[in-house]
Automatic annotation (TrEMBL):
This is UPF0145 protein GRI38_09490. It comes from Parapontixanthobacter aurantiacus. InterPro entries: UPF0145_dom_sf, UPF0145_YbjQ-like. SUPFAM superfamilies: YbjQ-like. Belongs to the UPF0145 family. Coiled coil: none annotated.
Length: 105
């Protein structure tokens, strides 16, 4: 399945618009990652553990969106938007939400 942030796919005209599809994932950061991230913040550099969690959450949200598009009979999702939001007490959770338009090309 093609997933694109653009509203058109070159060489693949949209035959049918099926509607908006979404995927949302909320993940919590555990204590050990928090401690590691704090140390990384103090000494500088990137926090690889947080990057892993963020990447996994984004992939899962996109996978949910693709499944919804497939259930509608789509073979592509266009106009995809990815949003990130910190939630929970003390920003202890991260929400990744994606949305786009399921289409048949």
């Amino acid at each position: 399945m093609i997933v694109s942030t653009t509203t058109t796919l070159e060489g693949r005209p949209v035959k049918k618009y099926l509607g908006v599809v979404t995927g949302e994932v909320i993940v919590g950061a555990n204590l050990f990652r928090d401690i590691f991230a704090s140390i990384t913040d103090l000494v500088g550099g990137r926090s690889g553990k947080y990057e892993e969690v963020l990447s996994r959450a984004r992939q899962e949200a996109i996978s949910e969106m693709k499944q919804e598009a497939l259930s509608l009979g789509g073979n592509a999702v266009i106009g995809v938007d990815i949003d990130y939001e910190v939630l929970g007490q003390n920003g202890s959770m991260l929400m990744v939400s994606v949305s786009g338009t399921a289409v048949v090309t």
